[in-house]
Specification:
The chain has an 8-stranded parallel barrel, surrounded by 5 helices. A two-stranded antiparallel sheet has the order 9-10. Helix 1 packs across helix 2 and helix 5 runs parallel beside helix 6. It contains 8 helices and 10 strands. The chain has 219 residues and is of the alpha/beta class. The protein has one domain: Aldolase class I (TIM Barrel, Alpha-Beta Barrel). Belongs to the TrpF family. This is N-(5'-phosphoribosyl)anthranilate isomerase. Keywords: Amino-acid biosynthesis, Aromatic amino acid biosynthesis, Isomerase, Tryptophan biosynthesis. It is an enzyme of class 5 (isomerase).
Length: 219
């Protein structure tokens, strides 16, 4: 099965171009106004229309209202809505009722991570496992204990949904991460140099993920 590779936090037309020419499967955009990587939906819409990336487009939101998501969708043809806040099951259900696309839920790794994941069984259509950092919802560049990956992966398999690993993934640790056989990765700061996406780093990471998946499939 093709590994999922989400390049997140794209902020410029150049970022999108680099992602479009990579082996990534998803390109992510932050629609959280207080976040450092927030981009105006109008700009993303123009760039996407011009570049026409083949990757699926993921909009990242934190505790959004239906109107906030609707506003983004007026400009950006999202394929996936990713919720990265403290959204409840009922709030996720309301979003699913309003928008005909998969909704992914980010889970912050801690002792309750798996039980929270189970709460969303049959509701969330995918999960992102991220590091828990006080005062931040994501994009911290901090890793979590990757020994926990098989447990999250097993639960996602039971629910028959994708599960991507996020938090501090970069070219220097991608080899180690892949030994835990994640189904996919979600990377942002780890593919940047001076705040811009770095095509060389994107290639290093995607090559490792695709190569490992191929090797694992053959074995």
């Amino acid at each position: 099965m093709e590994p999922l590779i989400k390049l997140c936090g794209n902020q410029t037309e150049s970022d999108i171009e680099k992602g479009a020419f990579s082996n990534a499967t998803h390109l992510g955009f932050i629609f959280v106004k207080s976040a450092g990587r927030y981009v105006f939906p109008e700009k993303i819409g123009k760039w996407v229309k011009r570049i026409r990336p083949s990757q699926k487009l993921v909009g990242v939101f934190v505790n959004p209202t239906i109107d906030e998501i609707d506003e983004v969708l007026r400009f950006v043809p999202l394929d996936v809505i990713q919720l990265h806040g403290n959204e409840t099951v009922s709030e996720l259900l309301k979003i699913k009722e309003s928008f005909p696309m998969p909704v992914w839920k980010a889970i912050h790794h801690n002792q309750d991570g798996l039980s929270i994941m189970r709460l969303f069984s049959g509701v969330a259509e995918g999960f992102i496992i991220d590091s828990k950092v006080k005062g931040a919802y994501g994009g911290t560049g901090v890793t979590f204990d990757w020994e926990a990956i098989p447990r999250y992966k097993e639960e996602a398999n039971k629910q028959n949904v994708p599960c991507l690993m996020a938090g501090g993934v970069n070219p220097s640790n991608i080899k180690e991460l892949m030994t835990h056989k994640p189904e996919g990765i979600d990377v942002s700061s780890g593919i940047e140099t001076d705040g811009e996406k770095d095509f060389h780093k994107i290639q290093l990471i995607t090559k490792e993920v695709v190569g490992h998946a191929y090797k694992y499939a053959k074995s």
